[in-house]
Write a structure and sequence with these properties.
The protein is about 0% helix and about 60% strand. With about 120 residues, the protein is an all-beta fold. A hairpin with a 6-residue loop joins strand 4 and strand 5. The chain is globular. The mean pLDDT is about 95.
Length: about 120
């Protein structure tokens, strides 16, 4: 079993920054990819950014240039640096891990951006 714990969410003013962390623990065998998703109130969960085992990254169009996804393999931790935050970025942010095709989710961390 794999556990994912997100942290770093909070309230920030528009234009500000936050850094989210996702710590993975448990029986991790071979991480294929990790990702951040978000879900705003009344909306579907959407992909924010992904990072593969080799370090390749992809971003949703709305966050490209503002958000940066990264990983510390030694710590089994993934990060999301969020800069130039906008009120539209307000959502619950979820960590996602694909371990040999089995997908795990964290419990989420709330990000609120005030205008």
């Amino acid at each position: 079993q794999v556990q994912l714990v997100e942290s770093g969410g909070g309230l920030v003013q528009a234009g500000g920054s936050l850094r989210l962390s996702c710590a993975a623990s448990g029986s991790i065998f071979s991480i294929i990819s990790m990702a951040w998703y978000r879900q705003a109130p009344g909306k579907q969960r959407e992909l924010v950014a992904t990072i593969t085992r080799s370090g390749s990254t992809n971003y949703a169009a709305g966050v490209k240039g503002r958000f940066t996804i990264s990983r510390d393999n030694a710590k089994n931790t993934m990060y999301l640096q969020m800069n130039s935050l906008e009120p539209e970025d307000t959502a619950d942010y979820y960590c996602n891990l694909n371990d040999r095709g089995v997908v795990y989710w964290g419990q989420g961390t709330q990000v609120t951006v005030s205008s």
